[in-house]
Amino acid sequence: MTLKQGGDFRSDECIKFLKQSDIVVTNPPFSLFREYVAQLVEYDKKFVIIGNQNAITYKEIFKLIKNNQIWLGSSLSYCAFKVPSDYEEKTTRFWIDDNGQKWRSMGNICWFTNLDIKKRHENLETIASYYKDSSKYPKYDNYDAINVDKTSEIPLDYEGVMGVPITFLDKHNPEQFDILALGIVGSIEFSCNKKMEILDKNGLPTGKFTFNAKGTLYRKFNPKTDEKPAFQDCETGELYSSIYARILIKNKNPKEKQ
Q1: Which is higher by pLDDT, 195 or 108?
Q2: 226, 225, 236, 227: which is closest to 197 by C-alpha?
Q3: What is the predicted pLDDT for the residue at 150?
Q4: What is the CB neighbour count within 10 angstroms for residue 16?
Q5: What are the strands of the beta sheet with 246-251, ordered from one edge?
Q6: pLDDT for res 188
Q7: What does pTM read for this prediction?
Q8: How many angstroms separate the CA atoms of 16 and 24, rounded?
Q9: DSSP string computed for 50-117
């Protein structure tokens, strides 16, 4: 079949085919991911599509995830893709096999879907405990929640709000956890608004300033666990670490403390 309008998913021709479809399975252009998902939702289509994991942090996509309208399927981190012979060689996740075929793999892509899957109803199980290991779960300075660096370290006996990595969504069971918000400006109300000097990658002053650490979650710098501080309080001189994108969650039925 030859498409007369170039194959753009926004064309009248493609929308006509979309309306006739039951399930959409594709790899949409990542730069138009928001727009593509919005179209699928508008036409109430079931879908299984490939996307970058960082799309989770797009406000339009996160809203759908929070409302249980879409969720993550399996990770594709270790899938290999054939690429053309003129494909530019890369320093990572790129190789040429014995037959001269070029290959690539992607480190942060996954399936996005609104089809029910078995793992969506499997409870996350960890051996972590806030009661025993509360020192490893520091609280943010600008939001009432604890920081959890790994999904495998989520303390299932904690009753309050937790900031967890976006990779948590690969294990999310909506019957076990509530997704509350993204830990960024525009999604939550921060509890303080300190003036901070931005530090460079070596932890040195830049002469540039921000309020509330550029609208992200932050906590006091810990020299034992953090490589370099990201900000310095202009009034007190205290050092702070910025926390990479976090999803704020709460356990619906926390276990009793042991």
Answers
A1: 195
A2: 236
A3: 93
A4: 10
A5: 146-147, 161-165, 246-251, 177-182
A6: 84
A7: 0.82
A8: 13
A9: EEEGGGGGSHHHHHHHHTTS-EEEEE-TT-EEEE-TTPPP-SSSEEE-TTS-EEEE-SSEEEEE-S--
